[in-house]
Every structure is written in structure tokens, then in C-alpha cells.
Amino acid sequence: MHGKHLLIIGKGGHYRVVRSLISPNEYDIISNINHLPLPLSDINIKRSTFIIKKYLKLYPNKSLYIFIAIGLNYHRKIISNFLNNIINIKFKYAKIISKDSNISNNVKIGAGTVIMPGVSINTDSSIGSHSIINTNSSIDHDNKILNYVSLAPGVNTGGNVTIKSLTHLGIGCNIKHNIQINSNVLIGSNSYVDKNCSSNKVFFGSPAKFIKLKKNDYNYFNF
């Protein structure tokens, strides 16, 4: 027993993958919670608050960590807003980093982020909070990946790439160096991005082209 207790929020495939990466030498897993405050309503928020507080009362004097193991970017943001603004108990967000990843020493990784096996992250890059860097993705030098971003398996980025919050890059995407992808963008699988991408849009193809507008998921975050 090492005094680091982990409560996981989520279910399904992403939850199972995240759990498989957690070393028993690093965290004691308390439980996972499938009850989420979705859709947003007073009843769901009260129910979720009660369930989470019931678990957390068991560890009032321990070092408590929470990880949101949910694949959808905007759902992770809803839940983190819920925890930060409504649950009046001190805790920390865990970082889950596979031992089979290759990360330069000066890379910064935010709380609540998961780095999957086979990922390479090169020097002077940074990954924000609550992001997913999926299996066998390669991030080159001086990348800036912000909060609530997800990179699907096999994504490759050149140097000096910026990816802003709530953006999802599909399987096998390739991003040219010096590219900025703005917030709430969806890049379709196997696309090659050679131009900057503006917010709230879907892009697809090689080279990637604008397909349609994407729903602004920020509307979900009002408590």
C-alpha cells in the first residue's frame, strides 16, 4: 500500500484500456463509477454528487486521485467541470502514461491525460489536461496539444504543430509541420493536413479539405 488511491470515472472500451495501463505499484484502484451527470439535469447532478461523495468519504485522509476514462472530448470536459465546480472535496487528477511509450525528458503532460503504448513524443512538446494520445501516435518536436484533445491510433505530427482544445484527429492522420488546428475540429481518418484548420469544422482527405461545420460542443458546459 502506497497511499495513492484512484477512482476511475467511465465504462466501456476506453475505460478497460486505461485500467490495463495502471500499475498496482502506482495506484490502488478504489472503484470505477459508471453514473455520470449526463444529460445535464438537477436530478443527474445530485445523484452523481451523492455517489462520488460516498466513495470519497472512505478516503478522507489519503492521497486521492481521479481519472476520467471517457473517450468523447466534450464528455470529459462536462465531467471535469462537474467535479471541479460541484464536488467540494480535494483530490488530484491522475496522469496515466504507458511504460511502453517513448517520451523526451522535457515534455510536459497535463493532469488527467493518458498516453497509450507505442506513443513517441519528441523534445519541447507539451500535452494539456484530460487529453488522449492513442496507440502508436508520433508527436514531433515543439508541438502544443491543448486540453480535451484526442489523437486516435497512428496519428503523426510534424514539428511546431498546435492542436487546440476539443479537437479530434482520426486514425492514421498526418499533420504537416508548422500547422495550427483550432478548437473543436474533427479531422477524418487517414487525412493529410497541410493547411491551418479553423474552429468548429470537419476536414477530410489528402490533402484535407473543409467538409462541413461541426457542432459547437461548448454549449454542453453550462452548469
The fraction of residues in strands falls at 25-35%
**Alpha carbon gyration radius:** 18 Å
Shape: globular
What spatial order of strands do you see in the largest sheet? 5-8-11-14-17-20-22-23
Q: Helical amount among residues, as a percent range?
A: 10-25%
Please sum up the structure shown:
The chain has 223 residues and is an alpha/beta fold. The chain has three helices and 23 strands.
Written overview of the protein:
The structure is a single chain. The protein has 223 residues and is an alpha/beta fold. The chain is 17% helix and 29% strand. The longest helix is centred in the N-terminal third of the chain and has 15 residues.
Sum up the structure in keywords.
eight-stranded mixed sheet, single chain, 17% helix, alpha/beta, disordered C terminus, 223 residues, 29% strand, 3 helices
Describe the secondary structure blueprint for this structure:
Blueprint: E1 4-9, H1 12-21, E2 28-33, H2 42-56, E3 63-68, H3 73-85, E4 92-93, E5 96-97, E6 102-103, E7 108-109, E8 114-115, E9 120-121, E10 126-127, E11 132-133, E12 138-139, E13 144-145, E14 150-151, E15 156-157, E16 162-163, E17 168-169, E18 174-175, E19 180-181, E20 186-187, E21 192-193, E22 201-205, E23 208-213
Parallel strand pairs: 1-2, 1-3, 3-4, 5-8, 6-9, 7-10, 8-11, 9-12, 10-13, 11-14, 12-15, 13-16, 14-17, 15-18, 16-19, 17-20, 18-21, 20-22
Antiparallel strand pairs: 22-23
